[in-house]
## 1
Amino acid sequence: MQNSGRVNFGSKIGAILAAAGSAVGLGNIWRFPYEAGNHGGAAFILIYLVCVLLMGMPIMIAEFTVGRRAKASTGRAFSVLAPGTQWKWIGFLGVLAGLLILGYYLVVAGWTLEYILQTVVNGTVQQQPEDFVNAFQNFSKDPFRPVLWLLVFLLLTHYIVVKGVKDGIEKSSKIFMPVLFILIVVLAVCSISLPNAGKGLEFLLKPDFSKVNADVFLGAMGQAFFSLSLGMGCLSTYASYFGSDTQLGKTALSVGVIDSMVAILAGLIIFPAAFSVGIQPDAGPSLIFITLPNVFQQAFGGVPILATVFSLMFYVLLALAALTSTISLHEVVTAYLNERFNLKRSRAALFVTGFCIVTGILSSLSLGVWETKFFGLGFFDLLDFVTAKMMLPINGLLVCLFVGWYLKKSISREELTNGGVLRAPYYSTYMFLLRYVVPVAIFLIMINELGFI
Ligand code: PHE
């Protein structure tokens, strides 16, 4: 039997940190602050937290249930729990989504390494605002440098995944996550203590309910989805390594709390610093790679070395957050190939890495020299669109239907209570959310993101 002797995470805290590592990523530090900024600040944050609680938590627990029950990675879990049915396609969809997300996520992850290097080499050189724009554009359109960095990032990811569940994923999460947490708290404290930081705090924390409309709700739900790594079986694959004493509800809550805290702290780094120097925080990749370097330089204008240290800590933070996420994406596919085709872990990982080299290079080139468009989108944007806007929500919806309507209730209850050992007073609320509320919510996000609302 493939299932017996399956490796587990060595400890409950290891399991929590690994799952939190998957969740905390570019989505928290880059996407969340800008979404919050554009959607009424604190009002958005409140709605976001409600979405995490009412929608994110039930799907996460459902993914955990599937993974731990089946003791198989997401690619096989549905065939194990519902043999001979079409539910198996959920697993394939997850594996494919993981592979495609890696193709563009790695490009941005690679950029963080260039910015670490640039900070070390040129950090103290005074630059004009337009220099930051030119630097980013020249770099991201270059056919070689970003490719080199994405390969370095991919190799790091590959190395950790090959080391295995305990010695690679769990061990690295136990080191990276505390470092990440310390960095983010230090950066937030520095940023809040800058002169005039109050305006940034107000922008982020004072609710402006006049800006709340359907778009804000849907934006918050979409953000919760991506940020919690839901809808592609990352967390269900990790749950297949959970021990029988890991508490699914408690673990989900811990991951939700850590992920939300990191997102809010990221906002507390970016907005106070930007407002302190009077720069309007921009949207999109330019916020992190164009606006922020400028902000850092000005915020600590008199003391270049301080700006360098702050900026270095920030990009290291970003790189670590991205790395624990790319590891989880890589693992979903590697574990599938390893189990399904009985490939050695190292060989399975090699296939995944090989595939990502191709998709990664193509998506990086599509931002510069490669101009071919698919349905009006470059390759990078195409991967982003197809995965984040279509595959993740569809997969999440199917997982809800599977656990809410197909899977025997006794199985869900057994998993939530660890076979009757724990009490799970939230069980009926969880089931209600999973069966009715979440599927409707996901359906709404999807038709909104596809432009039907
Ligand atoms: N949650 C990660 C982030 O916030 C992204 C991710 C999505 C990782 C889906 C794995 C699966 O950046």
Note: Residues 447 and 453 are 6 Å apart (CA to CA).
## 2
Amino acid sequence: MTTIETATPAAAPKPSRRRGRLIAAGLVILLAAAGTAYWLTRDTDTGAYDPDAPYLDASRPVAERVDDLLGRMTLDEKIGQMTQAERREVTGGDVTAYALGSLLSGGGSVPSDNTPQGWADMYDGFQTEALATRLRIPMIYGVDAVHGHNNVHGATIFPHNIGLGATRDPQLVRRIGEAVATEVTATGLDWDFAPCLCVARDARWGRTYESFGEDPEIASSMTTIVTGLQGEKLGGPNSVLATAKHYVGDGGTVDGKDQGDARIPEEELRKIHLPPFQAAVKAGVGSVMVSFSSFNGEKLHGHRYLITEVLKGELGFTGFVVSDWNAIDQLDGVRDAFTPAEVSTAINAGIDMVMVPERWREFIAVLRDEVNAGNVPMERIDDANRRILAKKFELGMFEHPMADRAQFDKVGSAAHRELARQAVRQSQVLLKNSGVLPLKPKTGKVFVAGRSADDIGNQSGGWTLTWQGSSGPITDGTTILQGVKEAVEPGGTVTYSADGTGVDKSYDVAIAVIGETPYAEYEGDRPDGVKLDKVDLDTLATLRKAGVPVVVVLVSGRPVDVSAQLPQVQGLVAAWLPGTEGAGVADVLFGAYAPTGKLPMSWPATAAQEPVNTGDEKTPLFPYGFGLTY
Ligand code: BGC
Ligand code: BGC
């Protein structure tokens, strides 16, 4: 690792001298707290950089390296490690000046050159700044690669978790984790804010598609993705730090409200929402992200019992806990400032790294004051640092801090797209078939309609290129229409019109690709239930009037109320949010692969029936686990 070897040569300070310096540093910190020219004095060092320091010796055990490094760090350096800023909110020199421990890309926060090389260049720029700090501790860069490396143009977009839940195939999901980790490391990044292990109990929740399903058993079994992302252990060639999120009960809020309140007994929290986190800890997940939501009125970000006692104590989680986007600012119910009470409550509750995207300077100042005032014990700061630094060592970041530029071509590679297509096939759930499916390949006249038939953006959903996602040709891939054409032509003909105009009796079948358009957290909440829009109902009406059999392919992040339409259509397939490989949908429609997908959620009989879950007294339209085949 060349960067570190350009060290300013300095002998290891003798312990006694170091102690003296520590005391001096302590005095300086007190002065700084008194409000004097703080940034000029803060890093009166406890020893210059020492290239022979034990923490730089990769042959030593991680625990020893952590202890050694921690012993050299000032309070400000420790607070820096606990601080995560957004890439748009730092300017040249900040990472060095504030010794920032981590950066992130929020949804859609991309370098101006949104290519693998553009990302690697950006990453290396920040890392060079981190390595210019006194102790040369690398920064760790996190991103939401929640269904592929989804901010990157040209990356493979896999089905969202709800579709993966329908596959019931943990080994497939593990391989997807490996592919995602490869695409993420190919761009230089270290850390993925995935998997979401939320157990969605109410489909009105806008994050339902980030859930593997309503039964904890599915999400628990899918924690194979943690091994896929991290490797058998951290530090392998394509290993990224995984994040189990959002701890805990985010899918159990009243009325499926995002960032809402799970008003349930602890017994139910433990039975429904905790098990996937237990499984993730068992699989060695390196980080856990806390949920914006509350548990019986108490915000999770201040929940010492659930974070420190249950997660770190009972479950034995040894990685680090990261907060969600500005979430600590919500602790007192007012989004205004990181108040001293909010900051100390969050850190004392057990949060180790704090996602403070924009106002990270404010956070640093408040936490410093709270430590100096004795409101946050030094042992808590040290514990947080131990946890963060251990992961950086385990990832091999001190040995290989810079982006590995040998794998740009892995991003959106043919092999990953083939894996994604397989996942799409396996995620299709056949809900109705009056004998019209499978369609005959390479013969006949097929009509395709619907606003999601030829739309990569719609079939990918939220968290694709941008935070909320958007319609249109937003990245490379195969639309469902293109997949249908591949299956039919030559031999047959495919006619397409989004609203169904032009359909007539001469067609053998009409495929209507309808459903939801992209949304993400918060904006996707549908308190009145999930229904078809008028434009989709109009398309269906046009097709039905022509008197041809209609197969509905529903592109959606969750069950949609289709009870009124069901008797009028001859086939219904839940395609979920398949991502960029739309041909996988056609593979099933045309019988190249028989459907095997099973519902990961109960399908409500009416929009008003939510919440409806397996084991309750209600009768859904299709039960949990339902799925036909041929
Ligand atoms: C979301 C997280 C995400 C984070 C960073 C938050 O708003 O709740 O799931 O990891 O933003 O983008
Ligand atoms: C970011 C997301 C984040 C959200 C939180 C957006 O601007 O892109 O990553 O989750 O803000 O409100």
Note: The chain is about 35% helix and 10% strand.
